[in-house]
Design brief:
The protein is mainly α and about 150 residues long. It has six helices and four strands. It has one domain: Glutaredoxin (3-Layer(aba) Sandwich).
């Protein structure tokens, strides 16, 4: 997502990361019990994964996360009026980039005088499911996170 954010930054497309909770706590990243701990986890995420976008930290009870759907890896795109124009229950850079390109083209068409009316659409996207990479990510949290995930999902 860093690359997508960088690609569109000069076109006034902002990108933020909202740190909500540890989806798979383990020995290294425990279940969150304080905001101080949550800020440390968010800083570690920034440093270990190289997140170079601003990171906002959700309330300890996850109020923001719940308000926007409670999915573990969501992405939302809002227009300048704060209206949601894209919602995905899983963050996938290709899908997000496709949506940004589309909405930037809409802006250009409207600026050129094309009269356009919004409508809703629902679409099923596909992402690469790299199980080995996923488990390497879980290992950052500790062996308990890997074990619990394997027990729950096989």
């Amino acid at each position: 997502m860093n690359a997508v954010a960088e690609r569109f930054a000069d076109q006034n497309v902002g990108s933020i990361f909202v740190y909500s909770y540890e989806a798979h706590p383990g020995e290294f990243y425990l279940h969150l019990t304080s905001m101080a701990q949550k800020f440390r986890h968010a800083a570690d995420l920034r440093d270990k994964l190289g997140v170079n976008r601003p990171i906002l930290v959700d309330a300890l009870d996850g109020a923001c996360h719940r308000a926007y759907g409670s999915m573990p890896n969501m992405t939302w795109i809002f227009n300048r009026s704060g209206i949601p124009i894209y919602k995905s229950d899983w963050t996938d850079a290709n899908s997000v980039e496709n949506a940004i390109v589309y909405f930037l083209e809409v802006i250009e068409r409207r600026r050129s005088g094309v009269r356009m009316t919004p409508f809703r659409v629902e679409r099923l996207d596909y992402r690469i499911n790299d199980r080995e990479e996923f488990y390497r990510g879980l290992e950052r949290n500790g062996p308990k996170a890997v074990e619990e995930f394997r027990e729950a999902f096989g």
